[in-house]
Please model this.
Amino acid sequence: MPELLIVVVVIVVIAIFVIGIYNGLIGRRNRVDEALAQIEVQLKRRHDLIPNLVNAVKGYMQFEQKVLTDVTNARAAAVSAGAQGVAQQAAAENMLSSTLRSLFAVVENYPELKANQNVLELQEQLTTTENQISFSRQHYNATVLDYNTAIQTFPNLVLAGPFGFSKRDFFDAEPEAANVPNVDLSLG
Model:
């Protein structure tokens, strides 16, 4: 009889251990999903602001139709990339950021446009949104790192595969973010 009790206790301990690992992995996976949802909220906000910005500058920039078309096309690609996975979404959003930078560079050539209150407000909202996207990406990537580490380390590794926990992709930064600007403060 004591042997049976020992076997039952060992089985209960192992079951509690497995349940604890499983629940921990579920919690981490849910945090990754929540962090990705936060990025998507900020991206939707940016996607919603872009048509307003394009409409606000369209009248001033008759000779810059290519820039406006590029921004509109990049926005459409970014919106549709959301269903294709994190890597494709990140690439499309990076392209959109690049086209927005070129739009803002062109805006600098139009003094009356730079002074337009509506354009200034939209630029400020987009800048704020870009900062929020950056923070959301950082949070998401930290959460993905924690999750990926959890499913790749022992003993979680033993349970992660059979229970369907798979590695998640990071939301990659813009390629331009990797380039460190060269600042020359020399007087000569």
In short: Confidence is low (pLDDT under 50) at residues 177-188. The chain is about 75% helix and 0% strand. Residues 2-58 form the longest helix (57 residues). The radius of gyration is 24 Å.
